From TrEMBL, chain A:
Coiled coil: none annotated. One of its GO terms (cellular component) is anaphase-promoting complex. Residues 36-79 form the RING-type domain. This is Anaphase-promoting complex subunit 11. PROSITE patterns: ZF_RING_2. It is found in: Nucleus.
UniProtKB/TrEMBL annotation, chain B:
This is Cullin-4A. GO terms for molecular function: ubiquitin protein ligase binding. The lineage of its organism: Eukaryota, Fungi, Fungi incertae sedis, Chytridiomycota, Chytridiomycota incertae sedis. GO terms for cellular component: Cul4A-RING E3 ubiquitin ligase complex. Residues 395-620 form the Cullin family profile domain. It comes from Gonapodya prolifera (strain JEL478) (Monoblepharis prolifera). Keywords: DNA damage, DNA repair, Isopeptide bond, Phosphoprotein, Ubl conjugation, Ubl conjugation pathway. PANTHER family: CULLIN (PTHR11932). InterPro entries: Cullin, Cullin-like_AB, Cullin_homology, Cullin_homology_sf, Cullin_N, Cullin_neddylation_domain, Cullin_repeat-like_dom_sf, WH-like_DNA-bd_sf.
């Protein structure tokens, strides 16, 4: 007998590639596997953003933070100017 | 005038008028009345009256007699004439009285006929006499206070002397009438014409309403009480009360029709004004007096037998006797009892949903048919379903979800419309269920499999179901389901893009990947498995492609949900096999090995023993056997051997053997339930904290009431206590120092 795979319908769950899976967003305190408080479902609709300082946030959370004048454009964790890490 | 002509009395019994002879005389003196004017005039009239009374020919013409009366009245003899006439009438009526009283006291038909004849004759005479004395009637009797017009006078005399209230003649007549009615009720034929005449006499004489009807009703009451009691005891003593109750209901209906017919003008003989009283009596004595006993003995049987006609009769009559409440309570009780028997019988879980659907349909058609959609019955049905379905927590919700899954996969050979209808009926059951979260968890789990294994029978059905669920459960639930559909769509696009890449074209496997967002899909346990080098390379190529498109992400492979199409060449046939990924891994081993033990297969695949056992059973012991097992037993042990079934044959080219993926394992079932209960604990935690945060201090009773008021799933008091203890341990709450039954919120 000879068996050969013609088609393979695989399944994978995508996750944020973070060192610690239980990490939470420094702004909203929700886990990254969930979404920011304004969104309904995690995933494409509620992306993360990495700073050059290596801090990660929900993009929606960070944008809201940066809109506030008091933020002065700083990373809320280390108070250094926030610069997104380039891909 | 010849004799022959003299016999001809004309139609009214009077002699024809004489030809008037014209005589013209000059009036010399004022004419003077002869002294015997009144005397002779009356004699002429008396002769006529007596002729009428004895049915003889009247000598003079009506015209002449009429003028005689007129002359008497014109010469102020009205009062005398009226008195003389009334004496004549009285004399005649007294002779009728004597004649009727000469009959032996009896209520016989012959006697009734005599009474009828006496009245008919009286009326005939009085009509003639009245026309004779018309002038007197008009100018005197009708104009003078304190005296009756002639017709009324005669009626009054007849009542005074012949059909006297309390007198033997009236008593006998009424008794005779009632005997005839009873006889007819007992099924005998009676002379309705005769009875109609007697009733008419009673009506004419104003004796019906006050004297006769009360007796009629008393007799009717007696008759139906007896019959009602007899039939009721047949119902309560019968081995099958349903048949006897059906019989009784038909009888009431028949009795009501009969009484109604008896009171229909020209057909029956009683007056329409008696109809309602008689039919009410029949219904009251048949049903109302024994209402509860009748329902207890027969209602459940009629429901069991789906006796639509009898139930219609039952509702109609209970409505009329204003006992709907009794009937509704009985119906509620029936629905709850039968329903909880279905729900709590754990041996019939396999057919639970079908049984409930069937039962619901039966109850609904009973309410909309026999019970005329009576609002209080609609409500009773709803309340009963809510009650009994939740007697057994969680399981009905789970089974309804699975039933719908089955429907969405197979379609069961139904048309789109039939399937829609069935889904709606499932949802109408689901509506009663308190533990909606259990349904949601199982529905979602099943939907995930349908989507990932391509098992939905129709996309349209899935979308329409999604809309129905949005209405039932709210968008919070369906937004996750919608996200699942979206992932599938995105994955299709992704697969197309991937196949277009040059690296994908170097792979010798046609790979497509469903990429799922976490938190949207049900969570799956991690399954370790050893993947051959060539396949691992494929996943690596795809993962690189994916992360290239989506920075910051990684892929977690779910081998348990994957499936493959294999090209399999057997000595006798070449087939395409639809198999799970685990089945694939096992079958690929047989490219290099003729025969392998369970232990060897497990070492090669690293599959967990329980899972591998299921896989091996599906390949060697299921309907389609691509492998042979020795020994041939159903159980699987480490040293059992497997080898390719060299004689494999199948009528189809494409053969599906991955049903095990669709099938829920006991572990999955348990995990799904556990997950729901875990989620519930978090919800209860959150609800208590929210309540206490706003109320600060609450007694145990108050807190319990508030929590149960807010929860959407059942929770028993023991569970609640555990959660509260947990919150005290975690210092969200504390007990009051003075009163241990009071809780205080710790800020
Ligand atoms: Zn956030
Ligand atoms: Zn967001
Ligand atoms: Zn930072």
């Amino acid at each position: 007998m000879k068996m050969k795979i013609k088609r393979w319908q695989a399944v994978a769950v995508w996750k944020w590639d973070l060192p610690d899976e239980d990490d939470v967003c420094g702004i909203c305190r929700n886990v990254f596997d969930g979404c920011c408080p304004d969104c309904k479902s995690p995933g494409d609709d509620c992306p993360l953003i990495w700073g050059q300082c290596s801090h990660v946030f929900h993009m929606h959370c960070l944008l809201k933070w940066l809109e506030q004048e008091s933020s002065r454009g700083q990373c809320p964790m280390d108070r250094r100017p926030f610069v997104a890490a380039s891909a | 005038m010849d004799k022959g002509k003299a016999v001809d009395r004309g139609s009214n019994g009077f002699a024809p008028a004489k030809k008037p002879t014209l005589v013209i005389k000059g009036f010399k003196n004022k004419p003077k009345l002869p002294d015997d004017f009144e005397q002779t005039s009356w004699q002429k009239l008396e002769k006529a009256v007596r002729a009428i009374q004895s049915s003889q020919r009247v000598q003079d013409s009506l015209e002449e007699l009429y003028r005689t009366v007129e002359n008497l009245c014109l010469h102020k003899y009205s009062e005398t004439t009226y008195t003389r006439l009334s004496q004549e009438m009285e004399r005649q009526i007294k002779s009728v009285k004597a004649k009727l009283e000469s009959f032996p006291p009896s209520a016989s038909l012959a006697f009734l006929a005599e009474v009828r004849d006496a009245w008919t004759e009286h009326c005939r005479q009085m009509l003639l006499i009245r026309s004779l004395f018309l002038y007197l009637d008009r100018t005197y009797a009708l104009q003078t206070n304190g005296i009756h017009p002639i017709w009324e006078l005669s009626v009054d005399m007849f009542r005074t002397f012949v059909l006297t209230p309390g007198g033997a003649t009236l008593v006998g007549s009424m008794k005779g009438l009632l005997l005839q009615i009873t006889s007819e009720r007992n099924g005998n034929v009676v002379s309705r014409d005769l009875l109609r005449s007697i009733v008419q006499a009673l009506l004419d004489l104003d004796l019906y309403d006050l004297i006769f009807e009360p007796e009629l009703l008393a007799e009717t009451d007696r008759f139906y009480t007896e019959e009602g009691d007899r039939l009721t005891s047949e119902v309560t003593q019968a081995p099958d009360g349903g048949v006897a109750l059906s019989h009784l209901l038909k009888r009431v209906e028949q009795r009501v029709q009969e009484e109604s017919n008896r009171c229909t003008p020209n057909v029956g003989y009683l007056t329409p004004s008696s109809r309602r009283k008689l039919t009410q009596l029949a219904e009251a004595q048949f049903v109302k007096r024994n209402a509860r006993a009748l329902l207890d003995a027969g209602f459940d049987k009629l429901m069991d037998a789906k006796a639509t006609d009898d139930l219609t009769r039952l509702y109609t009559v209970f409505n009329r006797i204003q006992c709907q409440d009794l009937l509704r309570d009985k119906f509620t009780n029936y629905t709850k009892t039968k329903g909880s028997a279905i729900v709590t019988d754990t041996t019939r879980d396999a057919t639970l949903v079908d049984d409930l659907l069937e039962f619901k349909l039966r109850i609904d058609t009973t309410v909309s048919g026999p019970f005329r959609n009576d609002e209080s019955f609609v409500h009773a049905a709803k309340e009963s379903f809510e009650r009994f379905i939740n007697i057994r927590p969680n399981k009905p919700a789970e089974l309804v979800a699975k039933y719908i899954d089955n429907l969405m996969r197979q379609g069961k050979g139904l048309t789109d419309q039939e399937q829609e209808g069935l889904l709606d009926r499932c949802l109408s059951l689901f509506r009663f269920i308190q533990g909606k979260d259990v349904f949601e968890a199982f529905y979602k789990r099943d939907l995930a499999k349908r989507l990932l294994l391509n098992r939905s029978s129709s996309d349209d059905a899935e979308k329409s179901m999604l809309m129905k669920l949005r209405q039932e459960c709210g968008s919070q639930f369906t937004s996750k389901l919608e996200a699942m559909f979206k992932d599938i769509e995105l994955s299709k696009d992704l697969a197309t893009a991937f196949k277009a890449t040059t690296t994908a074209q170097t792979l010798d496997v046609d790979l497509s990947v469903s990429v799922l967002a976490q938190g949207v899909w049900p969570s799956y346990p991690k399954m370790e498995v050893a993947v051959p080098e060539a396949l691992a390379r494929c996943t690596k190529v795809f993962a690189d492609f994916y992360v290239g498109k989506h920075k910051g992400r990684k892929l977690d492979w779910q081998p348990a949900l994957a499936h493959c199409t294999l090209k399999a060449s057997f000595p006798k046939a070449t087939k395409e096999l639809n198999v799970s990924f685990f089945q694939t891994l096992v079958l690929l081993l047989f490219n290099e090995n003729k025969s392998l033990s369970f232990r060897e297969i497990q070492q090669a695949t690293r599959l967990e023993a329980k899972e591998l056992t299921r896989v091996m059973q599906s390949l060697a012991l299921g309907k389609v056997r691509v492998l042979n097992k020795s020994p041939k037993s159903k159980d699987v042990s480490d040293d059992h051997l497997f080898e390719v079934n060299e004689t494999f044959q199948h009528e189809l080219f494409r053969v599906k053997i991955n049903a095990i993926q669709q099938k829920e394992t006991p572990e999955e079932q348990k995990a799904t339930n556990t997950r729901v209960f875990e989620d519930r604990k978090h919800v209860v935690d959150a609800v208590i904290v929210r309540i206490m945060k706003s109320r600060k201090t609450l007694s145990h009773t108050e807190l319990t009431r508030e929590v149960f008021g807010q929860l959407k799933f059942p929770l028993d008091a023991k569970e609640l206590k555990k959660v509260i203890e947990g919150l005290i341990d975690r210092e969200f709450l504390r007990r009051d120092d003075k009163d241990a039954s009071m809780f205080v919120y710790v800020a």
